[in-house]
Amino acid sequence: MSTIVKICGLNDRVSVETAVAAGADYLGFIIFPRSPRALSPTEAGALAAHKGAARSVAVLVDPDDALLGEVLARMAPDIIQLHGDESPARCLDARAYAGEGVWKALGVSAADDLERATRWRGCVDGFVFDAKPPADASRPGGLGVGWDYSLLSGFDPGAPWLLAGGLSVDNVADAIAQSGARGVDVVSGVEARPGVKDADKIRAFIAAARKPRPLAC
Ligand SMILES: O=C(O)c1ccccc1NCC(=O)[C@H](O)[C@H](O)COP(=O)(O)O
How open is the CA angle 35-36-42, to the nearest 5 degrees? Predict the structure, then answer.
């Protein structure tokens, strides 16, 4: 089965069209002012209109109801990805604002962090397991930091999940092999510099994530 790929932090039309043409399954749009890829709900909606067969993901950090309502009105995302400190109950609330569901992003640096994920079981439609950001980070994601992906091997959080954090064309195949991920999510690894996507890197990343791997004995 083909690896599911989310290209995230898209903020210009050429990059959206490149990701769609290369076969990305999900396109992520960051609606968080402190990100170098930040968009307004209106800007995200204008880009998401070019999603083709892909699905749009609004990435939000502890949004209030007013912002969720604005995102629904201006963008109508297929998926809402919550990347802050949202509780399971808050994730359930957010489902009313997404066409297909809500994903919870969780930072992982040790096995305990994965056990925490069971709190969200039944309240979300998917997970994004990402690097745990340092306490003084200006944003909770899109930092290009890798982690011990093998912590995920054999782990079942009770919903589909994506692997994220420090992925690039150079390590995505190994990261999939170590973690058993069926899907991957990338921001920094497909950029020329923070906030500027690189079309060649987008294409190469998707190809590398989907390159056939030999069967394990
Ligand atoms: O990318 C950002 O700037 C960002 C800001 C605030 C919340 C989330 C953000 N990114 C979300 C993602 O899903 C990224 O794909 C994930 O953190 C991995 O990023 P990277 O290590 O740079 O590939």
Answer: 75
Q: Which two tokens stand for residue 62?
A: 């502890």
The CATH homologous superfamily of the domain defined by 4-210:
Aldolase class I (3.20.20.70)
Model confidence pLDDT, tens digit, residues 110-135:
999 999 999 999 999 999 999 999 99
Which residues, including other chains, have CB under 8 Å from residue 106's CB and lie 6 or more apart? 113, 116, 117, 120, 127, 128, 129, 130
Contact 146, 166 (CB under 8 A): yes
| Residue ranges per structural domain of the chain | 4-210
The ligand 1 site (C-beta within 6 Å) comprises 8-9, 28, 30, 32, 35, 37, 59, 61, 83, 128, 130, 139-145, 164-167, 185-189
Q: Which ipTM did the prediction report?
A: 0.98
Structure tokens that stand for 7 in this block: 């290209």
How many other C-beta atoms lie within 10 A of the C-beta of residue 197? 22
